[in-house]
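Hey, can you fold this one?
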Amino acid sequence: MRFGLFGTGPWAHMAHARALAEHKDVELVGVWGRNPEKARLLAEEHGSRAYGEIGNLIEEVDAVAIALPPDVQAPIALRAARAGKHLLLDKPVAFTTAEADEIVAAVDERDLASIVFFTRRLMPETVRFVADAVATGGWLEARVDHLGSIFQPGDPFGESPWRKQSGGLWDVGPHAVALILPILGPVTEVTALAGPRDLTKVILRHGSGAVSSLTLAVDAPPAAAREEALISGEAGVRQPPPTEWDPVQALSLGLDELIGAASGGPKPELDVRFGAAVTAILAGCQEAITSGRTVSIGG
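Sure. Predicted structure:
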């Protein structure tokens, strides 16, 4: 499958470009970036070439991989889907439900394959944990604490303007939601509060009756940074197994799913429709913070 990579930041370097260049069933055709010099350097590093125009790269590939901020990613993804290209997107798919739903509609109309890069959700240990939890059932609640401390010297993600502006809700929130959504089911309403240093507290009510709580941040004090999760119910209390953070392996597994789906295989669970559901929940949380009210999701 011929891929075009859009993005030249740290995530494009450490995950997307490497996984695409190393995958046996992928040809990395070219790289586009908002900084042409960075695009040239990244392309040369992986034996590809830089493109100066978005449309020219889209025309020459079968699929696009996007490692850009959500507000930049969404219009490129929509343009690629309308051109009939398969999509490998980063999370969150977009900042608004309207943009995310447009991408879903374009993918569905053209029967395209898609996958959203929720890193640990693609790792085998987490896949097995979620599948077993779904099969077991009877869960009443979940709790996810995902607090990072990225604005420290040497952390490349701390230089990202969109993370500074949007905080933990939109950066690590997608990972938290993607873990619990298949286990507890669709979300019907949300409430959320913002605290100091981008701390966000979220309560989700699921259609199953279960309730989940999320504590999210990317600007936590270093001593407070943590990643913890649990689910509880009739089967007791369970926690996801320890999983190595290996974005290249995770993205390679995602590429396997995407290529398989494009060849007539099963659609990935983490497709753009799933990504749009996550965006709708996060947008509802943002509205709840701003309005001080509980917000209904999906009607």
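The chain has a mean pLDDT of 96. Let me know if you want another pass with a different chain boundary.
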